[in-house]
Each structure stands twice: as C-alpha cells, then as structure tokens.
Amino acid sequence: MKKTQIILNTRKSSLKSLDLKLRQINPEGERRFFILTDENVLEHCLPTLIYNVPELESSDFLELPVGEACKDLAIIHEVWGSLLESGADRDAVIVNLGGGCVCDAGGFIAATFKRGIDFVNIPTSLTAMVDAAIGGKTAINFDNSKNQIGAFYNPLLTCVEPAFLQTLPQKELRSGEYEIMKTLLLTGSHLESAFSDPSFSYIGCIQECIDFKLSVVASDPLDKGLRKILNFGHTFGHALEAYNLSHKVESSHGECVAVGMLYALYLSTKKVGLDASSYRQYKSWLSNRMAVPRLSLKDIEELLGYMRHDKKHHDGEHLCVLLQEPGVPMIDVPVSDNEVRDAVLSA
Ligand code: GLY
C-alpha cells in the first residue's frame, strides 16, 4: 500500500500547504478533482476550503447525505454513476471533506472506482482527524451492520486543519475528545493532566494521536494483530451504539466508546491486574462529563446479543482489549457473558 502524507501545521494554515501539494501532484493542471462532502460541511467548511485552496476552485462537487446514511450501497452506486457520467478517468482525484462517514465512504469509492484512484482526506471533525482519516480503512455499511464491506486503501494525502474544529458543536468535539482519551490510555501519556486539569488541551494532542496511530498501522496495516489495540472500548461501544439506535437513544460514537472504555477498565482491574486507581480516576473523569447509562439485566441481555454478532466474538466469549496498566494494552482477552453482566452493573 502507498504511504499517506499527513499535512498538519500548528502555526500556519494546513490548507495553504495542501494547495501547494495539490499543485505538485497536478503539475500540468490536467487532473480532475471531485469533492465529496455532506450538507453540513458544505455550508460550514467548503467556502473556507475553496478560499484557501485555489487549486480546487474548478472541482466538481458531489453532495452526500449526512452521517451513516452516506455509507449505503445505493448512495455509492449513485456516486459511481456521477463519476462515470462526468468523465472521471483513472487520474481523477476524490477529495473527502467531512467527518468519519464521508472519509469512510469516499475512501471506499476511491478504492473501487476504476480499480482504485487517488484520494485526499480533509477531516472536519476531531474524531476523523485522529482516527477515521488516518490508517487506510475504508468502508460502507451492509444490511444495517456497520463497515461490513470495504478495503484497506490509503489516501495520498490527509490534510488536518484544526481551524475547522471551530465549526463543530460541543457534543461533536466531546466525541473526539473521547477518542483522544483512548489514545492517552493506550500510550499512558498525559493522563495525570487530562484527569486533573479542566483546561487540558485535547486539540493539542492531535499530532501525537496521529503519530501513534500511524506507528501502530505501519506495523499491522491489515488489522491482524497489534492494530486491534485501537479497538479499546469498542467491543462494548459498538454494542451500545446498536442498542441506542434500536431504542432511539441519541448518542455519538465517542460517547459509546467512552462508556465501553469504562467497562473495559473495570474488567482490566479484575482480570489483568490494572491498578484500581487508574480505573477510579477514569470513572470520575467520565462522570464529570456525562451521565453514564444505567442498564437493567434485560438491557444487558440485549447488549450481549449485539456483542455476539461482533467479529470480536469467538467460541462463546467476547475478545476484548484490556489494559494491564496505562500504556500496556493486551489484545484478545476472552471475556464471558457473566463478566460482561458484572462490568455493566458494577462499573
Ligand atoms: N479505528 C480503528 C482502526 O483504524 O483500526
């Protein structure tokens, strides 16, 4: 797989550097750029992009539905059709401007159109900046199951422009902060400050999170071993997301992962020797930010049902990432149904 170049400037606009890079990959000006975005981003970020990146001025625009709806095969079919109709060739470049869903769907379109064309990610959410836009996982949903069809396919460039974060609602920013906390727990860095300093800068951790993810992905690009650590909190988190969706409870991916990490840390103290104080510090940090859901035994049975359908379920046990200590994750730790019940009721 080709390597992605990351553009992230702290003192000047990343978009200005993107403009230069795009000129370098298009010296004759003959390549066509297709910007994929959604309605929200179109309004809040597209004008800034075009103003700062004149190279994209004459791009074609394709608008996707907001959120997971854009990761539907019918939508992808439409976009393939629009690309063909407008004469996109193998030199065309897809430019994904948006959050994780746009990056996932646009990456999948780039991976499959004419057997693979170049694409650029310009993440506009904090979650996408530190996770979805990095590492080459592209995917769409199938039959109500998330990310079932996809490809590992790296973008040519990922341009992270922190100025876009000013357009985000507080809830979205928080969701990204939970993904950043995941990295801090996996690396063991900055935890004391994050737990005790209310003015701790999560945005100041973007570069570190990207570097960490790139190093993990470099050693396991196809998610066969070490990369699984990035799923910390996700075995529970994905089940909670599915549960919330079916009960029409509004929640973000980050919130569900944050609760999932609480359960995983509780089980880490029981099963792999994590010190109780790390778990307690996290619990108190999380309770200051959100009301942790209280689930009944009946709810937990439903949660277990979703967990059994997860790819991380094997021989009647749930394979989880747990922490021996902050910075020391263990993958594929088998967790029984009873241990899940205990974690959800007691954590
Ligand atoms: N989001 C987890 C991964 O990229 O592997």
Relevant terms:
single chain, about 350 residues, alpha/beta, Rossmann fold, Dehydroquinate synthase-like, alpha domain, 2 domains, six-stranded parallel β-sheet, three-stranded antiparallel β-sheet, 14 helices, 11 strands, about 20% strand, binds glycine
Provide structural commentary:
- The protein has helices spanning 14-25, 39-44, 46-52, 73-85, 100-112, 126-132, 170-187, 191-196, 206-219, 234-246, 253-271, 276-287, 297-308, 337-346; strands at residues 5-7, 33-38, 60-64, 93-98, 118-123, 137-142, 145-152, 157-159, 313-314, 317-325, 328-335.
- By secondary structure, it is α/β, with parallel strands linked by helices.
- The protein folds into 2 domains: 5-167, 3-Layer(aba) Sandwich (Rossmann fold), CATH 3.40.50.1970; 171-209 and 221-346, Dehydroquinate synthase-like - alpha domain (Dehydroquinate synthase-like, alpha domain).
- The protein has a 6-stranded parallel beta sheet with strand order 1-8-5-4-2-3, sandwiched between helices. A 3-stranded antiparallel beta sheet has the order 9-10-11. It has a two-stranded antiparallel ribbon with strand order 6-7.
- Helix 11 (253-271) packs antiparallel against helix 12 (276-287).
- It is globular and about 60 Å long.
Q: Helix and strand layout, with pairings?
A:
Blueprint: E1 5-7, H1 14-25, E2 33-38, H2 39-44, H3 46-52, E3 60-64, H4 73-85, E4 93-98, H5 100-112, E5 118-123, H6 126-132, E6 137-142, E7 145-152, E8 157-159, H7 170-187, H8 191-196, H9 206-219, H10 234-246, H11 253-271, H12 276-287, H13 297-308, E9 313-314, E10 317-325, E11 328-335, H14 337-346
Parallel strand pairs: 1-8, 2-3, 2-4, 4-5, 5-8
Antiparallel strand pairs: 6-7, 9-10, 10-11
Bound molecules: glycine (GLY).
